[in-house]
Write a structure and sequence with these properties.
HOTDOG_ACOT; elongated; Thiol Ester Dehydrase, Chain A; alpha+beta; Acyl-CoA thioesterase YciA; long-chain fatty acyl-CoA hydrolase activity; EC 3.1.2.-; about 130 residues
């Protein structure tokens, strides 16, 4: 087993944890969808880079579903897990949980399946390392 695979996060370990600020809120009092999408892409990219042991690019978001709004003062935990692995690409399931009410409530707010491709030095697809 390679070092990258040994260090993959467990399901209960968030890849990213962040608190949205006032600049991230829309006129409805909710966090912009684009902001959370960026956080999801960042977390998925962290995991993809670990698996690929190098640079990766997001090439698709196959399914994205907003389940509940993210509110100001929520603490956002972003989880990423490897769902499928190809020769050069991988599908990373990204899930976002909002912790609110001073830690008394957890709400699944969104999830999506992101596809990343491993890149070589010329920014062309390359084979993933053996797992």
């Amino acid at each position: 087993m390679t070092e990258a695979v040994r260090n993959l996060p467990k399901r209960n370990d968030p890849v990213l944890r962040v608190v949205p600020g006032p600049a991230d809120i829309n006129a409805n009092g909710h966090i912009f969808g684009g902001w959370v999408l960026g956080m999801m892409d960042q977390a998925g990219g962290i995991l993809a880079g670990r698996i690929a042991q190098g640079a990766c690019a997001t090439v698709a978001i196959e399914k994205m579903e907003f389940i509940a709004p993210i509110l100001l003062r929520d603490i956002i935990s972003v989880y990423a897990t490897l769902e499928r692995r190809g020769r050069t690409s991988m599908g990373i399931r990204v899930e976002v949980i909002a912790t609110r009410a001073r830690g008394q409530q957890e709400v699944k707010v969104t999830e999506g399946l992101f596809t990343f491709v491993a890149l070589d030095d010329d920014h062309k697809p390359r084979a993933l390392p053996e797992s």
